[in-house]
Amino acid sequence: MKPEINIFIVEDEGVVAKDIKASLVDLGYSVCGITSSGEEAIGMIDELKPDLVLMDIRLEGELDGIQTTEIVHKRFRIPVVYLTAYADKPTLERAKLSGPFGYIVKPFEDRDLEIAVEMALFKHRMERE
């Protein structure tokens, strides 16, 4: 049994967010929150202190996922893995600069999600030690 790992989902499509949550729960993780906006994500992450954030790039509100990730890294030091349909070169270049712990292109398989989450959590643990 895995120790409880709390994951926060930032995804602008409600159906996709619910699918991701179901996949994470099936994999043994806990989902502590879901939102569709970067601004709301920052407040909820501050309150919930998740172990990991799964971040879409296109979000509701003024901030996109890359801008939100930059703020999350500066304020909270919580690892972020992108889950997005965007794999074009300009988006990848912007995303790289935000220091993500992973990047998964939709659609993806549950095994891809599990591997990305495990690698991000491991890398974050190593950085803290």
Describe the structure.
This protein has a 5-stranded parallel β-sheet with strand order 2-1-3-4-5, sandwiched between helices. With 129 residues, it is of the alpha/beta class. The model has no long low-confidence stretch (mean pLDDT 95). The relative contact order is 0.17. It contains 5 helices and 5 strands. The two termini are 23 Å apart. Helix 2 packs parallel to helix 3. Helix 3 links the parallel strand 3 and strand 4. It is globular, with a radius of gyration of 13 Å.
How much β-strand is present in the residues? 15-25%
Mean pLDDT: 95
Distance between the termini: 23 Å
- The protein's oligomeric status is single chain
Q: Poorly predicted ranges (pLDDT <50, ≥5 residues)? A: none
Helical segment tally?
Answer: 5
> Care to count the β-strands?
5
- Major sheet: 5 strands, parallel
